[in-house]
Amino acid sequence: MTAHKAGADGFPEVAPGAEPEVAGAAHGEGPDVVGVRPDTRMVVCAPLLPEARAIRRGIGSGGEVRITGYGAARARRQGERLRRDTFGTLVVAGTGGGMADDLRPGDLVVASDVTDGTTTTACPSAPLLAGELRRAGLPVRTGPVVSVDRLAHGRERARRVDPGALAVDLESAWLAAAAGGRPVAVVRAVSDTPRRPLLSPAALAGGLRALRSLRAAAPVLARWGAAAGQRRLLLAGPRSFCAGVDRAIEIVEKVLERQGPPVYVRKQIVHNTHVVADLERRGAVFVDELSEVPDGACVVFSAHGVSPAVRREAARRGLAAVDATCPLVSKVHAEARRFAADGYLVALIGHAGHEEVEGTMGEAPGAIALVETAEDVASLRPQDPGKVAYLMQTTLAVDEAERVAEVLRERFPAARAPGSDDICYATTNRQQAVRAVAAESDLVLVAGSSNSSNSLRLVETAERAGVPAHLIDGPADIQLGWLAGVSTIGISAGASAPPAVVGQIVAALAGLGPVGVSERVTTTESIHFSLPKEVRSP
Ligand code: SF4
After folding, report:
1. In the list 228, 250, 390, 469, which could disulfide-bond 183, CB 3.0-4.6 Å?
2. pTM for the predicted model, two decimal places
3. SS3 at position 444
4. Where is pLDDT greater, at 159 or 105?
């Protein structure tokens, strides 16, 4: 049964702090949040004529480009006028000074926020715009932009501008503040850098490069403006981390805590780039094979499991192994061993090359055959057709796997099934929940990495429900074209995707206009797996 839950906080199922509250988002389900803005005009403010020209050439009819004048005083005056205007979206674009040593002339800085030191305007859709610019082949960075009252160079600039700023200019903060809650973007093309200051001989070339980048960015700005609008966001519940992933991450954290870095982890602990990058920052070293682990070191086996051959090799090398295999994967391993010991040919329904499949097949080499599709069933050659059993990879699409199992049962009526479902509770629940949001959505976005089987199956499940669906690692992967004409977006996350990523996606979409955030909860989960003895607290 689908429980409709218009959460007051928008994220009722998530631990406090895991998914940030969305500033400016209209939470609730009322139809008033979905509709057409009274004025959808995009105004682009360019301080100088050459900047305005460069943008006009690229933007066509996608926005009204205004020359707002050079310097803080003019920007303040224009800002006041803009506040009274009825535009739909606002872009401030021009050239600017780079603050980071690794910026080069022509690089684009998309502001995450812009400040004059007193007033700060957030630009929450910055990751969407930056992602689209990157896909257009442009060099882009995202970060804070600071506007100052007067031009400063070299050391003076470094002294006067917040060291966390990526770019500095004389206008953006006062112009962007005029957005007054409407979607706003600030893009500065770097003309000078700490290494190539404004008054150096290289400055002219830097300025020309910056103008070229502005022109190339202009069509993307038009797409950003066209993607703006009010929307409903439906969060699938459950979504994101499962008990097996939680446990695997906690195991690595505990080992890091106990023995300090480096801690070797064979394969990605779970299939998610954010999780892996975070643990790497904290001292985990991910390796593909045990041969990369020094003798006697500690190694963690990933949540997807390993074959007995890997365990034997670790023991032979004197490695201190900590096993983060999900207990539900271990359950499939045990079934494989049991069927093989009883003389069965085990058909493993799964995907070739997946680590979990490799681990399970290693439990009984010679007695397990991989079956990827219903067609593969025909190629099974059991010695005794009465002794066939089947198992499943834990993260398959429930309906597809069942179709393969059906064909297998037709060919081998005596085929033994696993004692209990192999496709795990987390996979099943997330597929059910994504189906529920897909039924009400124009588009479904699934947070997850491209090697996450669980996440990919969620995309396919939504697609089978007749809705366009995309896998995204984070908001930067959202293509603005996907949003055209879309008023309701379903959002889910694979079992390996951190809850915080969902918060980032919601926040970025809220930067394109007011969003009503609600959740469709098909079931709640309370499963928890205990830690292995090596990392349990004494
Ligand atoms: S998706 Fe299922 S099998 Fe995989 S780690 Fe999570 S609970 Fe375990």
Report:
1. 228
2. 0.90
3. strand
4. 105
